[in-house]
Write a structure and sequence with these properties.
- This protein has about 550 residues and is an alpha/beta fold.
- It has a domain at about 5-45 and about 70-80 and about 240-325 and about 475-540: FAD/NAD(P)-binding domain, CATH 3.50.50.60.
- Helix content is about 35%, strand content about 20%.
- Strands 1, 2, 11, 12, 13, 14 and 20 form a 7-stranded mixed β-sheet that branches.
- α1 (about 15-25) packs parallel to α10 and α3 (about 105-115) packs across α4 (about 115-140).
- The longest helix is centred in the N-terminal third of the chain and has 25 residues, at about 115-140.
Amino acid sequence: MVMKKYDAIIIGAGHNGLTNAAYLAKAGLDVVVVEKNDYIGGASTSREMHEGWVYSSASYVCSMLRQAIHRDLNLTKHGLILVPYLGTVNFGDDGSTLVDYPNEEAAYLELKRHSPHDADAMHRFQADLARYAQFIRKTLLRTPPDPTSLRPRDIRELMFLGKQFWALGEKEMYEYVRFFTMSAADFLEDYFENGLVKAAMSSAGIIGTALGVFSPGSAYILLHHVMGDVDGNIGAWGLARGGMGAISNAIAGAMQEHGGELRTNAGVSQVLVKNGKASGVVLESGEELYSGIVVSNLDAKRTFTKIMDRKDLPPGIFEKAEQFKIRGSSGKVNIALSALPKFKGLPDNRYIDRGGQGFTGSLETMERAYDCWKRGRWSDDPFVESVIPSAWDPTVAPPGKHWMSNFIQYCPPTLADGPWTPGERDRFGQAVVDKIERYSPGFKDLIVHMEVRTPHELEQEIGLTEGNIFQGELTIDQLLFNRPFPGYAQYRMPVKNLYMCGSSTHPGGGVSAACGANAAREILMDLKRPNTVPEDDFYDE
């Protein structure tokens, strides 16, 4: 029997792995993507979990997908349609509401209803945040420089970063450095006075991270979530028609168009290393696949402590992987509804129906939920961010019915009282439903089906260590040339011919596809192949 040898094997069919494979296939390489599940997409997937209802079981919103990649892989041709949110409502502890309308005048008047000061401050806040985000956006599709290297390429990249930083101006440079060490709450105190406004603005600073709104470093997480764009609108959030799996399916289509192969039910048990070089993989079935390049889309901890033999690693790498910060803090509850829910204190409004619902409460409520997480339990009063995609997308629910996606902070990866059980999982889901019921009386009567996912399910089903949606914390010690480890931020790993392309690498988590594209650029450079991977975004030029 002749054993086929590929040019590259990509481990994991999450959106970054598929992006990496698509660019390698586009460059003429013979690639195969191996995926342990019987479906693709990893955390960016859409599945019919109840007859007639299609859930985006994990990720639920598209805000960071790089438009340069969208255009370059022609994802529209492969069925990807993205639409922006129309508006979001945030609920306070006392039942008060704050609606973020897409219309500038309406949004201003809504803020003024709560605080004239905050209505005037919002423009300054958004302008400052956009300026900070614009600096970071310029790095997303670039390989981080090695600050210890004297290679011309690294020196050029350091000079590029220095030039962009200097362009901020003296005052902004001081503020930018200060920003990276601040909490989301302290950052917002510089702008706003109203409690609900601050709570609404801070929510992006805690999503997916094991930090609270008063934790130093959470201000950057807030920035991380406004670096995307939808349809040219910088900072906008959007939804994919057909659910988040439509993104992965479109990228897979682009890969297969260029001859790439996709194998599901093909989990990897070990990366093969021969003479100090990665040479293939052993599947869980026992089958061996060989290649000149191996690319892991798994997180850093999982790559080096689960599918690598420790003796194949240079000294210290196994320990670095063990110490890599990757604490899970999020849960997800998907709910099939018999009708569109109604919320207290809100008129019927198509902007709100086609936006999101933030059950934020207050900064103090959000911090108390974080305190519960630190003690190994979930809060009875959690932060819940919801969206009802079926309000505009008829493909995700039967006619007249709806699907509600609920993202929860905070949910611990392990419980203080013992392991997660189906009973504990259901009690967590009930706490989320109870919270929504407070703001939408009768909500429980609309429930047809629920899918509850704690960090335990996210790890077991998708392979996210501890259920961490970013494949590693986005703290300053794990960003840019420190991600995943100092000295290995350029997608090449300690074993020759082994690369990483997942969110454990720069620029980190979110459905951006940047990690996969950046890794492909480095691989093609090493192979001296023609390189068409974009290094910048159209809207930043």
